[in-house]
Automatic annotation (TrEMBL):
Pfam families for the chain: HpcH_HpaI
Signal peptide: 1-28
Protein name: 2,4-dihydroxyhept-2-ene-1,7-dioic acid aldolase
Domain HpcH/HpaI aldolase/citrate lyase: start-end pairs: 20-210
Lineage: Bacteria, Pseudomonadati, Pseudomonadota, Alphaproteobacteria, Rhodobacterales
Keyword field contains Signal: yes
Alphabetical UniProt keywords: Lyase, Metal-binding, Signal
InterPro entries in the cross-refs: Aldolase/citrate-lyase_domain, HpcH-HpaI_aldolase, Pyrv/PenolPyrv_kinase-like_dom, Pyrv_kinase-like_dom_sf
Organism: Paracoccus aerius
Superkingdom per UniProt: Bacteria
Family (UniProt): Belongs to the HpcH/HpaI aldolase family.
Keyword presence, Signal: yes
Length: 265
């Protein structure tokens, strides 16, 4: 089975860099895969991507060493099993609130005796390798999103779940859950109570021998996350990156400040 780049980085003590994919396009996925990310996460929860498009996006990533992953819609066994069969090397599940939720997530992603995943890897046996059935348990990454007040109350129990690889912080929902509409909606939290919450999740994950991941809105904040000790950071998504580059090119034209944008390939 082809190795999981994320696990290779972790084995060396490094921090993996990822981006989300929300545009339902294999070509867009292929472009992103060629940029040097360690992992790319197809967003089936909030993006406008369906299952067959996700399969095409995984296929488009195949020519690069990037780890193909997916955020599934919800804690649903069918969604998790099918996206793994499609070739996902990692699953990120939203709204995991209890240790029971985490245990179910693990069970849906693991074959017996560690889980209830039905065997029928479909595309994965071709994209990952003929020995997929023997090695999938060692390569697939399973992450639980921490983004609610209930999850924070059950943090240590969730982190201790056998078979779970780590905790993934969703800062927007977590901020809403812990502070309501007190602060702006967005990533890259600067509020003392939110930085404390982020550090709590990091400590809980590492205390249980698990990995910690942080979703960021900027490279500057991602570098802070790396300095804090996060094992994985995600910076933005294809939609925001495209919109930002397009806006920068228009702004450069309107203002005549061409040094701010290089439109070359």
């Amino acid at each position: 089975m082809k190795p999981n780049r994320i696990r290779e980085i972790w084995a060396k003590g490094g921090c993996a860099l990822n981006a989300f994919l929300s545009i339902p396009s294999p070509f867009a996925a292929e472009i992103m895969a060629a940029q040097g990310y360690d992992g790319l996460i197809v967003d089936l929860q909030h993006g406008v991507i369906d299952y067959m498009t996700a399969v095409g996006m995984f296929q488009a990533m195949q020519g690069n060493p990037v780890a193909p992953m997916a955020r599934v819609e919800w804690l649903d066994p069918v969604a998790i099993m099918k996206i793994l069969d499609a070739g996902a090397y990692g699953v990120i599940c939203p709204m995991v609130n209890t240790a029971d939720d985490a245990a179910r997530l693990v069970s849906y992603a693991r074959y017996p005796p560690h889980g209830v995943r039905s065997f029928g890897p479909g595309r994965a046996v071709f994209s990952a390798g003929a020995d997929y059935g023997q090695r999938a348990e060692d390569e697939i990454v399973v992450l639980a999103m921490i983004e609610t007040a209930e999850a924070m109350e059950n943090l240590d129990a969730i982190a201790a779940t056998p078979g779970l690889d780590g905790l993934y912080i969703g800062p927007v929902d977590l901020t809403l859950a812990l502070t309501g509409r007190k602060y702006r909606i967005g990533f890259d939290r600067e509020e003392p109570e939110m930085i404390e919450a982020i550090q709590r999740v990091l400590a809980a994950a590492h205390g249980a021998g698990k990995r910690a991941a942080l979703h960021c809105g900027s490279m500057e904040y991602a570098l802070r996350g790396k300095e804090w000790g996060f094992d994985m950071v995600t910076v933005s998504n294809d939609v925001r990156l495209m919109a930002g580059a397009a806006a920068a090119s228009v702004q450069a034209f309107r203002t005549g400040q061409t040094k701010s944008f290089d439109g070359s390939y």
